[in-house]
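Review form for a predicted model. The reviewer records the input and the model, then writes brief findings.
Reviewer: anonymous (R2)
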Amino acid sequence: MNNIDPVAASRLPQLPESLWRATSSLPSFPSLKGTIKADVAVVGGGIAGITSAYLLCKNGLKVALLEAGKLLDGTTGHTTAKVTAQHGAIYDKLLQHLGKEQAKQYFDANDEALKWIQNTAASLGIECGLTSEDAYLYADNEADLELLQKEWKAYQQIGLPGEWVDKLPLDGLSERGAIKLPGQARFHPLLYLKGLLDEALKLGLTVYENTVVTEKVEENKQDGRIMLHSAAGGTVSCSWAVSATHFPFTDGGGLFFSRLHAQRSYVLAVESEQPFPGGMYLSAGATVRSLRAAELDGRPVVIVGGENHKTGQGAPMIQHYEALEQFADSLLGVKHIPYRWSAQDLTTLDEMPYIGPVRDKYPNMLIATGFNKWGMTGGTLAALIISDLVNTGQNKHLELFKPARFHADPSIKTFVKENLNVAGQLISGKLESPTRLPDSLEPGEGAVVKVAGKRAGGYRDPQGKLHLVDTTCTHMGCECRWNSGDLSWDCPCHGSRFGYDGAVLEGPAEKPLKKLTVEQELQ
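Model under review:
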């Protein structure tokens, strides 16, 4: 029996909470009831959805924004909020797989999104702490240095405005060199997006929260309008539908559950003993470490992120927070950690977002997903493309990002690898035989347990109440695993997440886990 609370043994806050969510106030909106009409229905209340809604309203269209939960309570509300076109060591990969022209176009598209954010915040007078910063991609071991040197050669071949530096402004981070990309930015993402939302509301935007859009999509054969339906019975009749969610609310035959994989990453807001010199930092290798400055009640904090892994897989999740705490303490010294949180994002087969028509035969159903943890520029870029498609039917970047694309290298290899992983997780989950009983769970502890000889998920809350659920994911039947860091049940196959009470936190699952309110129900 484990009687030790791992969080209490460190300086980590007991419960996860995003600094951005804690330091912003957002309006609330009703759920959709009855039938409404709109020119465009945008599904998803993160940066891609809100920016799309703003642009479309600005162009005089009637827009309805639908969010399954609360606005900005997903990945956008839990980001590190770096606004940059330096997306890790990606340009060497793009150069090898797509060539110089398309690699440069990827940079240009994200740089345009960065500049659009800067110009829009300035023109609208949005106070969001938008600050220009240099971004650094660094190596801290010999293997990563080799990777970084290849990336630097790609920068030179493509003609990107970076420079090689041998020493970083932040002492102790790396002595092996880094690629510096000037003129990038950081901000408070929710204050920025609240500014966009306020402007969109003035332009006539209607918003509906707690509105889950189902897979059932119909087309009116008489006028060609699309009919979207909510789980609670509401309906939107629209000329265009935009899915700005993780997995598209409708697959459209695109098989996106097999072409996207979910990853989680972790973040701490740290009050440090040593001053932070400015700049945004990201390690080049597989062990991800990310740093940037922020402000909390007028005092400086450092946003420390990393520890990427596939959702529902790997070490006990609390250990990822602890690893970041140890890293921050060794580098800067930790006085206090006021906030910790985690985020989930999707990665495509070739690591570039899917933006555009869900399929060529559905030109009026658009999607934006797969930002690979770079949603500040990626989500903004998606909104710019979507706005152009709705208004003119064209965008210069569409061919690069269209969801129907398929690059044999690396897509085939990645497709096979990821789907073999899903199959392995499905089988291993079914074969797992739990040995713990619900009575062994201490307050604040969760685990897979055995009840009446069957597998179940158990969590005992701090008040001592036991919560039991069926751990079988309602998406495709994989067995969920306990996330000790965020107190959730996470599916290792396609990234669905559920609260300890079974409620859906993140899709593609739409239905909650079955509650097992009394142990006799399993008999």
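Findings: The longest helix spans residues 100-124.
Further findings: Residues 1-8, 422-426, 519-523 have pLDDT under 50 and may be disordered.
Recommendation: see findings above.
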